[in-house]
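Hi W.,

Here's what went into the run:
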Amino acid sequence: MRAFLLETALFLSLLSAIIGGTVLFLNNQIAKNANFKLPNPQKIIILGHSHPECAYNDSLISNCRNLSESGEAYLYTAFKLEQVLAQNPEIETVWLEVSNNQMQASINNWITEEKYLSFRYNKYLPFFGWPEYALIAQHNPSAFFNELAMAIKLNGKKWLKKDYDFSQSIGKFARLEVAKVDSFLNNPQMLKPLPNWDKISQFQLFYLQKMRQICQKYAKKLFFIRSPMHPKCPHWASETQFKQILAKEFSEVEFLDFSAFPLQKSELADLEHLNAAGAARYSVWVDSLLKNGLLTAPNKQEFIQNGLNL
Amino acid sequence: MLFNSLSFALFLPVVFFIYWFGLGKKLVLQNSCLLIASYFFYGCWDWRFMLLLIFSTALDYYSGLKIAQHKENIRLKKFWLVLSVGLNLGFLGIFKYYNFFVGSFSDLLQSLGAEVHISTLNVILPVGISFYTFHGLSYVIDIYYNKIEPEKDAINYGLFVSFFPLLVAGPIERATHLLPQIKKSRDFDPLAAREGLRQILWGLFKKVVIADNCAALVNDIFDNPSAHNSGTLLFGAVLFAFQIYGDFSGYSDIALGTARLFGVRLLKNFAFPYFSRDIAEFWRRWHISLSSWFRDYLYIPLGGSQGGLGLKIRNTFIIFLVSGFWHGANWTFIVWGLLNALYILPLLIFDRNRNNLAIAAQGRFLPSIGEIFNILLTFSLTCLAWIFFRAENLTDAFTYLKGIFSFSGWQIGNFSSSLLGLILFLIIVEWWGREGNFALERVKSWRFKPARWAFYLLIGLLIFLYQGKSHEFIYFQF
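Here's what came out:
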């Protein structure tokens, strides 16, 4: 019995060591050689989830590059930010989308649910530390093992092909050609806040703090931004908690709140995303604010308000 | 709790350690431990149907005692047999077949112009009902025919019915085979345990790597056959053949391997069926426990092969139709069974159904050209039949077949070359190990230990790397 148990334990240990060793080796190779150098680097980068992804047409905003991605939790944004800032010294300013739903606990699914993990976890795995491994292993162990397997295959191919370029796959402006606000307004289910809307996501908070530290480390100016949303968007339910968190945890970070930018129904894809037409008009307006000195104005929110009033 | 889940990976060692270390090697405690573990295992699937399992177990246990008690009184003996069989099949009928019969009857009446409003039942099929029902039936029938004495110990009998490795998808055990093992004290046998682990490893490869990776492609092709050309449809049918083999034989390997960890040997359920040289041989190698159950409890009582060719053919057709029906309440399974019966018909007529009793190319490395041809022909016929097995309904099945025989192009759509490589690996390893009880059994004869370990580690690594999206075992739905 003893010999049987020892042999079984040895086999499992060897198998784990081979898998773990392969993951660590590939992570090391990818992290060492990863290319986040942006073609035509700009002074301002925009990061966040689908709200800024659809709102900021960077071809209409001078010196700006939109690196937002749908469904991206701050866990991934933080590691993307670090790599981008390290390899693109031309960047001076970071605009980071901080909106109501990003602080709600419902967004934790973007970190722990398998369907979201499969989009990003194995891609950014080479840059993670042990806390990030533990985070998923603890909350979704079966998905964690799946992702490790995917990571070995994906990163193994990258290593064999010496393909370390990330610059084309870290986000860009997304054009939405639909306008479905009315169908959302007519559906009461779509006007209800998400579950746990009133609870704060500690994961998001943690990685938001981390991004503030990253910007400090690279001496880049960080602004929080909030893209426009429809007044009936259910995310507004957590406005009080949202403002409290910003005031309590991030009082020193300037918050550029563009959410009140007036939009026609024809310019919104739904209650929280601009379509291409809305993004075009909005982006031109943001460009004008920047050209008129938004970033150097003493009271930026007043500056934005004056811009809205014009 | 799937066999390839983390929860089972925790469950099994806990039960293993309690069984061998925590109970002082006392048989009654070991059997009680396994029984509790088995009910826990079943409860994890759906605790609501535990009562049905317990009732079925109690019914057959008591009926067995009564049948034996009234050995001399044929009327009472028959009464208890009919009661047990009737109630068991009754439950199976209600849960599995009620909606089918009601729906089919309703369709028939409507086709004759009648307006019908018949309610169907909104019930979930209890997991494993087809399997544990047949366990119980074989027990009471064997007692009736004086093949065994009834088991007086309720724990032993309960364990026979609900032993967790075979509870939800077989193999369908016989009391004559399993009960004596349950009643005998068991000492830990490291060789048997290693064999068990070897078999579990190979079973996991077949289920996780082959079956689950084929499933995604198969679902895509079968869900929308009109969107694919002939080549892709043919490819889909072949992939399904590997999916169902990987799924079911993989599960059986894991079940048999797990049982060996506890000192129990279950009936072999698969013997490399895709290397069969004719359909009769295929059915001696596929789902052996079910085929032999039908042979012993239906075919032989109907007269079997005695009484001429006509009777033999009739009985064979009955077996295949019932077997198809056992698989599910759908006309597709009945057609599948009928097709297999038609395949066997020429072999019966020309008395060639027992030509190939040994494994192909026994004692040789390579098969002959004739054997290769026969193997491929048998495999092709099986794939054709599998189309009915997999399709949701007859219309979809015929649409699928029509698509294949429309010859609308032979370029296969998107497929993974690594999956084909893995299937080739499966075929090579299974061919190489075909003379054993399972493919990896032969590895133990390798003298160079590092080579054995490297091979096991390779398989373990492949299981880890190619873990597809986990799909429930196909046969759980039966």
